Amino acid sequence: MLKLTDFDYLLPKELIAQYPLEQRDSARLLVLNRAKSTIEHCVFKDIIDYFNKNDLLVLNNTKVLPSRLIGSRKTGGKVEILLLNRNKGFSFNALIRPSRVKINEKIIFNGNGISCEVSASNQVTFLVKDIAEIYALGKTPLPPYIKREPIDLDAIYYQTVYAKAQGSIASPTAGLHFSEELLKEIKAKGINLGYVTLHIGYSTFAPVKSEDITQHKMQKEVFSISSQTQELLEVAQLKKGRIIAVGTTSLRAIETFSQTGETQGTTDLFIYPGYNFKIADCLLTNFHLPRTTLFMLAAAFATDRLIKKAYQEAIEKKYRFYSYGDAMLII
Q1: Bigger pLDDT: 88 vs 280
Q2: What are the pLDDT digits (tens) for 250-283?
Q3: In a domain, 145, yes or no
Q4: CATH number, domain at 91?
Q5: 149: exposed, middle or buried (C-beta count within 10 Å: 0-12, 13-18, 19+)?
Q6: pLDDT at residue 112, rounded to an integer
Q7: Across the beta sheet with 243-246, what order do the strands follow?
Q8: Residues 228-250: pLDDT tens digits?
Q9: How far apart are the C-alpha atoms of 184 and 199, rounded to whole Å?
Q10: pLDDT(205) > 90
Q11: What distance in Å separates the CA atoms of residue 324 and residue 329, rounded to the nearest whole number?
């Protein structure tokens, strides 16, 4: 049995990055070579040295919505709402704090200008005419381990430079390290860039509660792979190039495609040790929280032994962890 406790590790809190670096590609990069069981350390912009002509980078071009809203109850009490997936009209599934907010209760935003009603458990419905009115109230939905309020810079740095398709409540953080200049250099070296879209939802953060991790169920997330990216995947395989997934979401999108042949729809693919990877040859990823599906995916790709070795070395060398932290390339 794959136990939840097998995916635990201790991280000093001071290593959790609270702010982004001014220069995206100045982050540190740990390179884990599975065949040689070796670890190297460099600066992220040097990642190009690990790519070869005819390799394909697969990047998730989802864009983070300003989905964190702060409102007030009629009593004056503060209410925080994280908008998840949209239902019909202006109704959303949502995480609402405090949980004692009652069904049919009205939440007021922006003075008395806009309001919503708690229409069901974990669901809110807005009284507006345009979706833009709702997101105009929102802030960047920083993850809870970033212990500060969002600032204007987060609206820039918590998006990848290639973000295009709106729909996520979290950033595909492995891609945050790429600057426009670095992407140009990568293309000039004969390395292709292919884009997929996977809108990151609450499933990414939902805690694994079952001690037997195989009993955990992922929530469905919307994904799509363009015909152009499908062609690039074929070309890379024909020319013996490597398919390098930039982030766990890109990997899950292309693995879903490889398994099912579906180029759009939803995926609830849960990858953990024992999974047989069909298409991804390398993985670029950030350092993830313990006991999460993200860490389990990384362990599946690198092996449990090597991923723990890499994390321990990253901790010893004081790498910055999580969303605004440093990166790891698994080759």
Answers
A1: 280
A2: 999 999 999 999 999 999 999 999 999 999 999 9
A3: no
A4: 2.40.10.240
A5: exposed
A6: 65
A7: 38-43, 28-33, 327-330, 282-286, 243-246, 56-60, 192-198, 221-225, 264-267
A8: 999 999 999 999 999 999 999 99
A9: 25
A10: no
A11: 16
19 and 33 inside one domain:
yes
The pair of structure tokens assigned to 179 is 């600057």
Write out the two tokens for 322. 């999580």
* Distances from the Cα of 59 to the Cα of 10, 98, 107, 252, angstroms: 30, 36, 38, 11
Residue 58 identity: V
Q: Which amino acid is at 122?
A: N
State how many domains the chain has: 2
Is cis: bond before 98, omega within 30 of 0? Answer: yes
Tokens representing 277? 């990877």
In-domain check, residue 242: yes
| CB proximity list for 74: less than 8 A, separation 6 or greater | 105, 106, 108
What pairing do the DSSP bridges indicate for beta strands 192-198 and 56-60? parallel
Is the same domain home to 264 and 223? yes
- Token pair of 87, please? 């239902």
Q: What is the 3-state secondary structure (H, E, C) of 22-39?
A: CCHHHCEEEEEECCCCEE
172 with 250: CB under 8 angstroms? yes
Separation CA 284–CA 262 (nearest Å): 24
Residues 97 and 189 placed together within one structural domain of the fold: no
238 lies in which domain range?
4-64+152-330
Tokens of 146: 């970033």
Q: Are residues 284 and 239 in the same domain?
A: yes
Q: Establish if 312 belongs to a structural domain.
A: yes
Judge whether 23 and 179 are in contact, CB under 8 Å: yes
What phi and psi, each to the nearest 5 degrees, are found at residue 23? Answer: -100, 110
Helices 248-260, 293-302: crossing angle, 10 deg rounding:
70
d(CA 273, CA 295): 10
Mean pLDDT of the chain: 96
Length of the chain equals 331
